[in-house]
Amino acid sequence: MSNKADIKSLKRSPAYQLAEEALRKMIMEGKLKPGEMLPVEHDLADQLGVTRPTVREALRKLESSGLVVRGARRRMVVSAPSPRIASDAMLQAIVLHGISYREIWQMHMALEPMAAGLAAETIDMDLLSNIEANLRHTEDVLEDPEALVEADIEFHDLIARASGNHALLLARAPIGEFLFPAYGAVINKLGPGQRLLDAHRHVFNALKVNDAETARDWMTKHIRDFLRGCEMAGLPIDEPVHKVNQDWNLQRFQRESA
Amino acid sequence: MSNKADIKSLKRSPAYQLAEEALRKMIMEGKLKPGEMLPVEHDLADQLGVTRPTVREALRKLESSGLVVRGARRRMVVSAPSPRIASDAMLQAIVLHGISYREIWQMHMALEPMAAGLAAETIDMDLLSNIEANLRHTEDVLEDPEALVEADIEFHDLIARASGNHALLLARAPIGEFLFPAYGAVINKLGPGQRLLDAHRHVFNALKVNDAETARDWMTKHIRDFLRGCEMAGLPIDEPVHKVNQDWNLQRFQRESA
DNA sequence: TTATGTACTATTGTAATACAATACTCCAGA
DNA sequence: TCTGGAGTATTGTATTACAATAGTACATAA
């Protein structure tokens, strides 16, 4: 009637974890709503039946998952987690699992054409003129590697936003974080990007006439070109990204965490 | 010569945050490698020039981002964040930002064909025979909605793994979390999935002969079919996922957090 | 000899307390 | 109305201590 599978490992959770779960539950169930201030640490400690250090450990955990943030008067306020939390987690995973540039690029190869295709179907005049302005700007900075990379980033961001797909924006963020620095290295080696500008123009023209097929195709070409550029520049694309970034001194983790 | 933009807000970070960043940096840069044990709290405190409670707050933050986990002898060990961390963050973002089923599906529409295409180029005999076994199993459970969904999930997982792209696996996880329950709802309404089995078979055959093009095409058809199924079943695909899941009682967040 | 019990030790978990640093409030005074 | 400063609330950090637990080594009993 009893076998060893019945024993359920029983490990008590430490108090700081119980405290975290209690708070998290209150937030998830809506008893504490985003924007609301948490009680002060001392009161929290009393209410939860633990001491301040314990409460603080729980708060740090919630802080890291984005459920609370430091508010106006230094007080902790409940918050809906920002997309950055998800994006940062992804970024970390990419670095620490030794994912290669090629893998990142393959993702790019799936996502950017998708973005272009969707954008072609739904883009509005506003974003369209933004992209046009971006193209003009790109012409001007064709000889300035740094500015060119920035313009390129903006172009792709605009397309992604034009796609109207928020899941795409989430997934794209960490990808770009790695690829665009690499592009900087490529144009430093191979010179300015006339091909880049051409491709961007073709995509733009396709968006203008709502031609999803063509937008996708040109974007695909464009991304493939990028990989060729990396290969020609000698970037070891099958190495883990963190290694490549180290060896090439690519700027990364630029975003300050505060 | 000086305007107010010059003043850079200067806010000193608290010590627990500096400590966290110091440790995080060491981990991200590979000075502390996954699997390695951290020094005991007391020593950490000494090395960082802070006290134990402060170190503990930093550790709780790292714990929440998955960079360290409780190891064998209760000691903290460095860890490559499990995909779960990234996936959970993404999931949270998807829910809390009111992303719609259509948006999730569009991502699926980009990622699954990509997976199939890559898999066709690189798949090995081992995984291929796994997929074959999965197909045979799928035939058997065609009349059992629950088992069928499970088989479907397994099929797509196998393809994704066969792609050899770890970034794809990361990005795919939260997507599937939402879509597969929906598929369950669809077959409950529309009956068994002969079309599903056909599509799976075509993809498999393409993989077998390393025909990436065909694998991609059939997967695309398959995913498009899935959306049609959702529409026919009356699933309100333009509503935020969390709302749909509520209304339809789809199983979600099944994964226990402990 | 093997197994069981037992003290010992290292480390984490938690409490209690204290004080410094800072941000906010409010009031006096120019 | 603005400025400056005292008072206060709250967070940030240190200090110390002790309880709980997992690992270790050794002793004892079968």
What features would you describe in this structure?
Two copies of one chain form a homodimer. Chain A has 258 residues and is mostly helical. Chain A folds into two domains: 64 residues, Winged helix-like DNA-binding domain superfamily/Winged helix DNA-binding domain (Arc Repressor Mutant, subunit A, Orthogonal Bundle); 164 residues, Up-down Bundle (Four Helix Bundle (Hemerythrin (Met), subunit A)), CATH 1.20.120.530. In chain A, 67% of the residues lie in helices and 2% in strands. Chain A is built from eleven helices and two strands, in the order αααββαααααααα. Chain A has a two-stranded antiparallel ribbon. In chain A, helix 5 runs antiparallel to helix 10, helix 6 runs antiparallel to helix 9 and helix 7 packs antiparallel against helix 8. The radius of gyration of chain A is 24 Å and the shape is elongated. The N and C termini of chain A lie far apart (57 Å). The relative contact order of chain A is 0.11. The N terminus and C terminus of chain A are likely disordered. Chains A and B meet through helix 3, helix 4, helix 5 and helix 8 of A and helix 1, helix 3, helix 4, helix 5 and helix 8 of B. The first copy, chain A, binds a DNA duplex (30 and 30 nucleotides) through helix 3. Chains A, B: Keywords: DNA-binding, Transcription, Transcription regulation. Chains A, B: It comes from Henriciella marina. Chains A, B: InterPro entries: GntR_C (IPR011711), HTH_CRP (IPR012318), TF_FadR/GntR_C (IPR008920), Tscrpt_reg_HTH_GntR (IPR000524), WH-like_DNA-bd_sf (IPR036388), WH_DNA-bd_sf (IPR036390). Chains A, B: This is FCD domain-containing protein.
